[in-house]
Specification:
The complex is a heterodimer of chains A (about 190) and B (about 210).
Chain A lengths: L2 H25 L20 E7 L1 H4 L2 E4 L5 E5 L12 E5 L7 E7 L3 E3 L2 E3 L4 E6 L12 E2 L5 E7 L4 E10 L9 E10 L2
Chain B lengths: L1 H21 L3 E7 L3 E5 L3 E9 L8 E7 L7 E2 L4 E3 L9 E8 L7 E3 L3 E3 L4 H4 L5 E12 L9 E18 L7 H30 L1
Parallel strand pairs in B: 2-11
Antiparallel strand pairs in B: 1-3, 3-7, 4-6, 4-10, 5-7, 8-9, 10-11
Classes of the chains: A alpha+beta (about 190), B alpha+beta (about 210).
């Protein structure tokens, strides 16, 4: 192949490539159909809003104070006030537009350095009524995953809680702590 | 007499302050406008929420949003925002949570650069979009005194909102001008090399 022939082939290749590029650019152009149409926008915004808060005593924490080893159903300090009512509640704000389900969990078992008190002995109960009998007996053990404690709590009302703790016989001396979380989710 | 008034004023002031502090209550609300969204893969999708702190709660809180489930790995953490007391739901403070939407659908690539995607018929249908499900959690912190002594638990609250992100399949063509241009440049480069080599070998022969 002499130089002239090669140059010619090269020229053809360049022109071909340029043509392909141009064609592909052109292919992206489309012609609009000549259609006459009238339209208007339409929209609707639906929103929900929910707020929950803690009673003063719940905000201050769930305290069991000094508890003895090998004891059961120790009441949290504010389970019963002078009127036999609990001071622990979650308030569902009136500034909301849906009822909620309230779930509860703790972040870990009650822990003091290397020692623990198992969740199987950390009980709670919830009710929409607050009196000497409600929330009633220690019925549900705490877990580290959310479990629904009470359903369909209307906005502007409270969910009342009581807490109890069993302390096993072998429990070492110490201050045992963890964190309990309450979560609201829109009731279906 | 004035000294007595002075002491009485201070006594009642401290008493009132003490009553208010001991009766403090805390909480936060979340307003939401959607529970699902169609998003494009490889993009950042953001959803807006509103945080509020209505009466009678009297503690300013720092609100923030987190995500759980499939959304936990792709949400972008943000700094908490101050939500003052007496912020009603109507005055909710906007708070956005963003998600890095991962590449989900297959692409055919040449040289790892020039990619195209042909969405299958089944992938174009909305009901077949890949979905990420989880909850957006409205949480808060506040300036609290440490948990007192003895055995027991500190406490906190949150509001959970379900959220489903449907990732749409976007057909994507190769960038043809760039693709053919690159091939052209490659051909020219190869041709030039061959030409130079041919010329050099010819010179050597003579």
């Amino acid at each position: 192949m002499n130089t002239k022939t090669f140059g010619a082939v090269l020229g053809v290749l360049i022109i071909t490539t340029a043509c392909l590029a141009f064609m592909s650019t052109m292919s992206s152009f489309t012609s609009a159909a000549n259609v006459t149409e009238q339209n208007t926008s339409s929209d609707a915004n639906v929103s929900y809003y929910v707020a929950i808060g803690m009673s003063t005593e719940l905000m201050n924490g769930i305290h069991f104070g000094n508890v003895e080893p090998d004891s059961t159903e120790n009441n949290a300090s504010q389970n019963f006030n002078a009127s036999s009512m609990t001071e622990y509640w979650i308030a569902v704000s009136p500034d909301g537009n849906t009822a909620v389900n309230i779930s509860i969990k703790d972040n870990a078992v009650l822990t003091s350095s290397l020692d623990t008190i198992p969740n199987t002995g950390y009980y709670y109960n919830a009710s929409e009524t607050n009196d000497g009998d409600n929330p009633f007996v220690a019925s549900t053990a705490m877990t580290t995953s959310y479990v629904q404690a009470i359903a369909d709590v209307s906005n502007g009302t409270n969910a009342y809680f009581r807490f109890w703790l069993d302390v096993p016989a072998s429990t070492a001396a110490g201050n045992y702590n963890n964190t309990v979380f309450f979560q609201a989710i829109k009731a279906v | 007499m004035k000294i007595l008034q002075f002491f009485l004023f201070f006594f009642f002031s401290f008493f009132l302050l003490g009553t208010l502090v001991s009766a403090a209550t805390v909480g936060m609300g979340v307003r939401w406008y959607k529970e699902s969204a169609i998003v494009n893969e490889g993009t950042q999708a953001c959803i807006e929420y509103g945080l509020y702190n209505p009466e009678p709660w009297d503690v300013p809180v720092y609100g923030y949003l987190e995500a759980t489930g499939d959304l936990a790995k792709i949400y972008i953490k943000t700094e908490p925002t101050l939500i003052p007391v007496n912020t009603s739901s109507k005055e909710a403070i906007a708070k956005t949570i963003c998600f890095d939407i991962p590449k989900t659908y297959e692409e055919n690539c040449v040289l790892g650069l020039f990619c195209e995607r042909e969405c299958q018929e089944s992938e174009i249908a909305y009901e077949n979009y890949v979905r990420l499900r989880g909850e957006v959690i409205g949480r808060y912190t506040y300036d609290a005194t440490a948990f007192g002594g003895g055995t027991g638990s500190a406490t906190g609250t949150s509001v959970a909102i379900p959220l489903e992100l449907a990732i749409s399949c976007q057909p994507q063509e190769r960038n043809k001008p760039v693709f053919y241009g690159t091939i052209g440049i490659l051909i020219i480069a190869i041709a030039l090399i061959i030409w130079l080599l041919t010329r050099r070998s010819k010179k050597k022969r003579y």
